[in-house]
Design goal:
Alpha-Beta Plaits; 10 helices
Length: 322
């Protein structure tokens, strides 16, 4: 048996999967409808919508199996997410990777597998829509096109899930999306004994921008600040908009010196931006509270946010005193 390899973007892929906040949730008709259609159209005993987690595959929808998850190292879907198109095993007993797989030797005794990767933004493959049979079979080109169409329908349903975690204006994570991603990132830091820091931002004089230049210009300021945050922080960091003019970022696996460097770079990038956009008639400035994650003091994401909020307002008050 050959265990599936890990995608090169595994950390980003897992973070995106977690941000959907879909793992271990209740069944939903929109996904069950797809697996029922797949099972009927292809006349297979088993059809699944499967998400590949860090060490398991979990079934959001499962027709023909009683279990809700299986180990990733014996999964077929773990192999399927490595490619761009349908992953097909016409006869598992003739394939060196699977002939002695526990899922082939024992129940559900898989002889045929076909899985189409479910691809969300930035080519991230979070799982599959897959067909399983206990007899060998071959898919025709028409069958393959049909499976691709069903896979695209599953992706559309996932997009609706993803929209619930994205801020509509700035297209970065909203509070819900940030909390889900940050929870996963902090659990990794805790388990690997790596540092993490939270940055809690609030734009200065944002009300004045809205009052003087209008809410449309205020929206532009929010969009521009979110773009600057995405440019300054690393791809592995979590950036979000909590609401209004409050933004947050979680910097992981970075020491105090690297944290200070990020703040210095942000200050420089924002100064350059303000210089280049003087014609708008205002500058984007911010106050920030920076909190080093301490698992003894911070039992939840909300604990970190509360402390960051407090430190941010301290800085804002000190600015006004000066």
């Amino acid at each position: 048996m050959k265990a599936p390899e890990y995608p090169k973007n595994e950390d980003i892929r897992l973070a995106a999967l977690r941000s959907l906040d879909i793992l271990d949730t209740e069944p939903e008709e929109r996904f069950d409808r797809l697996t029922r259609i797949a099972k009927r159209l292809f006349k297979v005993p088993i059809a699944l919508v499967s998400f590949v987690d860090i060490n398991r595959q979990w079934f959001k929808s499962c027709q023909g199996l009683e279990v809700k998850e299986m180990p990733r190292d014996i999964s077929f879907c773990g192999h399927a997410i490595l490619g761009d198109d349908i992953f097909i095993i016409s006869d598992t007993l003739l394939d060196d990777r699977f002939y002695d797989n526990p899922l082939v030797i024992n129940e559900p005794r898989i002889r045929f597998y076909a899985g189409i990767p479910l691809v969300i933004s930035n080519e991230i493959r979070v799982g599959t829509l897959c067909l399983i049979d206990r007899e060998p079979r071959i898919l025709s080109e028409e069958d393959k096109e049909l499976l691709r169409d069903l896979g695209q329908m599953a992706v559309q349903d996932l997009t609706l899930v993803q929209l619930a975690t994205i801020d509509e204006l700035t297209q970065i994570s909203n509070r819900r999306g940030f909390s889900a991603l940050a929870l996963y990132a902090l659990s990794l830091c805790k388990r690997m004994n790596k540092p993490a820091s939270l940055f809690f931002f609030d734009l200065d004089f944002f009300k004045e921008i809205n009052d003087r230049f209008g809410h449309a210009e205020g929206d532009i300021a929010l969009i521009n600040f979110s773009k600057i945050l995405k440019d300054v922080f690393r791809e592995s960091d979590v950036v979000g908009r909590l609401g209004g003019d409050e933004f947050v970022a979680l910097l992981t696996n970075a020491n105090q010196a690297e944290t200070s460097l990020i703040l210095h770079r942000l200050k420089k990038v924002l100064e350059d931006f303000n210089t280049q956009n003087k014609s708008r008639g205002y500058e984007i400035t911010y106050s920030v509270g920076v909190v080093a994650f301490d698992s003894n003091r911070h039992q939840s994401i909300n604990d970190l946010l509360a402390e960051g909020d407090r430190l941010m307002y301290e800085q804002k008050r000190n600015k006004r005193i000066k």
